[in-house]
């Protein structure tokens, strides 16, 4: 029986990569005159896609821990970009809604994200971009499986305040656009 050589794994400089993403996004947002951070934009993007989401689910969907998310939501609320509704039946259930001002800023910020993607994937073929995206998704699945992370749908609990949402908020539909992570 022959022994197989141990598999070697690449060093993943993800902390540096993430820092460069944040720096690039900050510079791009500033160059367009947007007073917003990458984390704030991710929240607006998710709310644009799924307005009225529960704050706990929003934390999961954006990858932010609940404490940081709560602080970021307070900043966005002070800027008039979102509003939160606390369910009177269950004070722990807070739903988050994007305001008209938040939608307008999201639309402007999305143009910045398009430029960011052009910078990030400069000199990549479409096949390389697709392969990279699939590889990242596989890595995420592997780690999520290891830590036993559930999806928001698996973790969903009945929402006693769902019927209390105003008709205007219920009928809002987000304009379709790609929602790939920045």
Description:
The chain is mainly α. The chain has a single domain (33-171), classed as Orthogonal Bundle (Arc Repressor Mutant, subunit A). 57% of the residues lie in helices and 7% in strands. The protein has eight helices and three strands. A three-stranded antiparallel sheet has the order 1-3-2. Helix 2 packs across helix 5 (100-120).
Descriptive key words:
mainly alpha, 3 strands, 3-stranded antiparallel β-sheet, 8 helices, disordered C terminus, 182 residues, Arc Repressor Mutant, subunit A
Largest sheet: 3 strands, antiparallel
Bin the strand percentage: 5-15%
Strand order of the largest sheet: 1-3-2
Architecture, according to CATH?
Orthogonal Bundle
The Rg value, from CA coordinates, equals 19 Å
The number of domains is: 1
Order of helices and strands: HHEHHEEHHHH
Mean pLDDT: 83
Helix content: 55-70%
CATH fold label: Arc Repressor Mutant, subunit A
Note the total helix count.
8
Distance between the termini: 48 Å
Q: Total strand count, please?
A: 3
| CATH H-tier superfamily | Winged helix-like DNA-binding domain superfamily/Winged helix DNA-binding domain
CATH class category label: Mainly Alpha
Low-confidence stretches: 163-180
Helix and strand composition category: mainly alpha
What is the general shape? Answer: globular
């Amino acid at each position: 029986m022959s022994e197989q050589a141990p598999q070697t794994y690449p060093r993943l400089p993800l902390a540096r990569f993430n820092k460069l993403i944040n720096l690039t996004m900050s510079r791009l947002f500033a160059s367009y005159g947007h007073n917003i951070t990458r984390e704030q934009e991710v929240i607006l993007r998710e709310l644009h896609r799924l307005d009225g989401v529960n704050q706990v689910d929003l934390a999961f969907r954006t990858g932010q821990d609940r404490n940081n998310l709560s602080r970021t939501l307070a900043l966005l609320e002070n800027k008039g970009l979102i509003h939160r509704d606390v369910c009177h039946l269950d004070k722990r259930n807070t739903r988050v809604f994007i305001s008209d001002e938040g939608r307008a800023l999201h639309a402007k910020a999305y143009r910045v994200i398009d430029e960011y993607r052009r910078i990030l994937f400069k000199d990549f073929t479409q096949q390389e971009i697709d392969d990279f995206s699939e590889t990242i998704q596989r890595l995420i699945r592997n780690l999520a499986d290891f830590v036993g992370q559930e999806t928001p749908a698996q973790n969903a609990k009945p929402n006693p305040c769902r019927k209390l949402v105003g008709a205007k908020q219920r009928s809002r539909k987000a304009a379709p656009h790609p929602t790939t992570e920045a």
